[in-house]
């Protein structure tokens, strides 16, 4: 049977110290303030993506719009779930989620988009998903073993962002090129 690196008595004593920090113990290896800042940037990204997908859902029109709009709505719901997970993690770490609408777009990794054409909407959403994939990959690698819980949150989000990008690429492949103005 493997031994603990620290004896259980010491672990119990440490657990009683700084109890107000909740899950953040001496074993936490990351720069908590920087992690909270990165989490809030990701939160802003997810909120902006939710809003962009919602706009695209409501404004999609044309011959191929029905299945595309349905995909936009599904992605909007999933992006909102991502935002909720990030806000929850921020609170777990003792931070405050920043929902300030005045600074959302400046903190977001992705951009808001008001494209009118269906193909342009899909392309802009695909670009935003690729930005999220690149950002979340880098964040997960940066967190490494210093904050495995937050890293896993980003890995979970990353998997779904990759799925979104693949969905959008598939939509682009199915829509005839002459519908670009739709």
From TrEMBL:
Q: Which cofactor does it need?
A: heme b
PROSITE patterns registered for this protein in UniProt: FERRITIN_LIKE
Recorded superkingdom: Bacteria
Q: Where is the Ferritin-like diiron domain?
A: 29-179
Q: Does the keyword Transferase apply?
A: no
> Would the keyword Iron turn up in this protein's UniProt record?
yes
Positions the record marks as coiled coil are: none
Its keywords, alphabetically, are: Iron, Iron storage
The UniProt entry, under PANTHER family, shows: BACTERIOFERRITIN (PTHR30295), DNA PROTECTION DURING STARVATION PROTEIN (PTHR30295:SF1)
UniProt name for this protein: Bacterioferritin
């Amino acid at each position: 049977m493997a031994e603990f690196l620290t004896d259980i008595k010491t672990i119990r004593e440490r657990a009683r110290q700084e109890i107000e920090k909740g899950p953040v113990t001496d074993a936490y290896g990351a720069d908590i303030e920087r992690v909270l800042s990165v989490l809030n940037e990701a939160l802003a990204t997810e909120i902006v993506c939710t809003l962009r997908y919602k706009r695209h859902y409501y404004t999609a029109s044309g011959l191929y719009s029905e299945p595309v709009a349905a995909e936009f709505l599904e992605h909007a719901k999933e992006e909102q779930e991502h935002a909720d997970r990030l806000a929850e993690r921020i609170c777990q770490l003792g931070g405050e989620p920043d929902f300030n609408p005045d600074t959302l777009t400046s903190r977001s990794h992705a951009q808001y988009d008001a494209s009118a054409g269906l193909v342009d909407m899909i392309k802009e959403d695909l670009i935003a998903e690729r930005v999220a994939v690149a950002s979340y990959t880098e964040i997960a690698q940066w967190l490494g073993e210093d904050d495995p819980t937050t890293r896993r949150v980003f890995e979970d989000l990353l998997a779904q962002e990759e799925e979104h990008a693949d969905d959008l690429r598939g939509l682009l492949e199915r829509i005839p090129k002459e519908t670009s103005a739709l």
